Write a sequence for this structure.
């Protein structure tokens, strides 16, 4: 809950000197497969419609708990890797909030 409040504060501060920590995690750990816009149009996510996180369709979500578990443990049936060893629980929380906000943020931008 504390992390959620911090993220909300970060998100509302926009592009100031204190960027959303999730943005850095996203760029370093997730964008290679999901794309910087989250639409999943990369060769690593080819043929995996659920790698598009902007379409509002979730295989594991939109329940936060399920998405946290997925990011921590990965999905053995796909290339979605487990991040429990790389990211702290706070970072996982933050990046899950980031993923959940993608459909609203990219509205209209993910049309193929
Ligand atoms: C090596 C490539 C790869 C990386 C890196 C990766 N993902 Fe994924 N991710 C995938 C693929 C492929 C899927 C689709 C799984 C499927 O089709 O079952 C997926 C699925 C997901 C989903 C579930 C979407 C749904 O519909 O339920 C979420 C959320 C997600 N990833 C978040 C992340 C986050 C956050 C990161 C960074 C911390 C990340 N991913 C890094 C490949 C990746």
């Amino acid at each position: 809950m504390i992390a959620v409040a911090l993220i909300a504060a970060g998100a509302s501060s926009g592009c100031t000197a204190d960027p959303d920590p999730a943005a850095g995690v996203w760029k370093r750990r997730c964008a290679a497969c999901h794309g910087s816009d989250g639409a999943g149009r990369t060769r690593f996510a080819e043929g995996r419609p659920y790698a598009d996180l902007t379409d509002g369709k979730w295989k594991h979500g939109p329940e936060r708990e399920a998405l946290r578990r997925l990011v921590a443990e990965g999905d053995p049936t796909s290339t979605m890797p487990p991040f429990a060893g790389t990211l702290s629980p706070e970072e996982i929380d933050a990046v899950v909030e980031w993923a959940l906000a993608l459909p609203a943020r990219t509205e209209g931008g993910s049309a193929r």
About this structure: The radius of gyration is 13 Å. The chain has a mean pLDDT of 86. The CA atoms of residues 5 and 11 lie 10 Å apart. The longest helix spans residues 89-105.
